Amino acid sequence: MSDVKADYELVQKIGTKRAWEVFLGTHPSGFYAELAKAQIEQLATQPANQPTAQPKVDLAALSPQQAPPVRESASKEAIEWDRVKDSTDPATLQKFIRRFPDSPLALNAQQRLDVLKKAAEEREEKARAERDAARQAAEEARRKARTAEGRTSPRRKKREDDKRRAREAEAAEKARAAAAELAAQKKREEDERRAAAAEAERQAKAAEAERKAKDAKQQAEQAERDKSAREAEAARAAAERQAKEAEAARKKAEIAAAREATCKDEQGRLEALLSKGSEGTGVDNLKQFSRSVTCDRLGPVVVAALDRFNAEAAKRAATQPNSPELVRSAQNELIRLGCLTAKADGKFGAPTTSALSRYLTIEASRPPIQA
Questions:
Q1: CA 51/CA 68 separation, integer angstroms
Q2: How far apart are CA 222 and CA 333, in angstroms?
Q3: pLDDT per residue over 221-262, tens digit each?
Q4: CA 263, 265, 269, 275 torsion-angle sign
Q5: How far apart are alpha carbons 229 and 218 in whole angstroms?
Q6: Residue 229 and which of 30, 215, 256, 337 are 20 to 30 A apart at CA?
Q7: Burial class of residue 19 (count of CB atoms within 10 Å of its CB; 0-12, 13-18, 19+)
Q8: What does the DSSP 8-state code read for residue 29?
């Protein structure tokens, strides 16, 4: 419960709808989950132009656009995430992130890891504050004792020393007790999580075994009732047909999963190219990627991105010295002045050079303008 409370307090400091949704994804039920839902409803009822509280903690700079919601999937990473999503071990979450770095669930794992780190830091800060308070109380007691030492009688001084030592011992004992309680609470919660996970796994295995036994019994009873050879043959044919259909469905699911994995990989490569921009080899890299992309839904996105990159490259080229656009503009001006008789083609060739020389000669021969 202390971890849930720490997570809730951390997300409360952040105060954004996305942070509350992440909290509900980690703690979907319970008292704090209901409070989190109420916070989300309160944020939803705020006017659009009303400023919201700025988050005090940067959860790896994850914005709602960058952190896609968790998808219900039978993929390998989803199964692994179901196993580790409630873990309080940072090493387990870091292992998941290293294993599935491109999965959207890695964002959830990073958010969970940040929350755990923040909670651990707050618990350590609290324990350190208690130790500092105890140490300050002891130092204050010693200071008062030293101040009164010169004017107290030996008997009174002894009583005060005994009280001071008792207070120091009590403060030290409280600090040790707080640290021990914190460690014990953390161990109890970890033991409870492990026990719950083991019990859930045992119940799942028992339920699966019971289901298989029930299916076997039903099949045996059905076979006993099917006395006719024709009925038995029909049952066998139906079973074979169902097996073929199941195999076809499995292959279809595998193909769909492979296509989705390919789309996911190509989506990551496209995002990497888009993040680099159209400068340098950006246009060529995007063109090469467009020739190799196989994901159907990425086709329009790649075409639009390529058009944007080409437009950006053309715009940059137009601002370069001796660009066709600038040369064509100068040629039109020379034609207007009568220095160029050729057509404005945007090429800085011999006719343009000669016309420019004639213009400079004419300008040099004009008398200066009297002020």
A1: 24
A2: 97
A3: 887 886 766 876 887 889 899 989 989 989 998 998 998 999
A4: positive
A5: 19
A6: 215
A7: buried
A8: S
Amino acid at 23: F
pTM: 0.27
> Nearest to residue 14, comparing CAs of 32, 44, 47, 40?
40
Whether 149 contacts 157, CB under 8 Å:
yes
Neighbours of 116 (CB within 10 A): 20
Q: What digits encode the pLDDT tens for the residues 303-355?
A: 999 898 888 887 777 676 667 777 888 889 889 888 888 888 878 788 888 88
Show the DSSP H helices in the chain as ranges. 2-14, 17-26, 31-44, 76-84, 90-99, 105-149, 154-225, 229-276, 282-292, 299-318, 324-337, 350-365
Q: What is the pLDDT of residues 55-77, one digit of tens each?
A: 443 433 333 333 334 334 447 88
pLDDT of residue 65: 36
End-to-end Cα, the chain, rounded Å:
89
Cα gap 160→167, rounded to integer Å: 10
Q: Which two tokens stand for residue 121?
A: 């830091």
What pLDDT band is residue 371 in, cutting at 50, 70 and 90? low
The number of CA neighbours under 13 Å toward the Cβ of 109 is 26
Query: Distance between CA atoms of 40 and 38, rounded to whole angstroms?
Result: 5
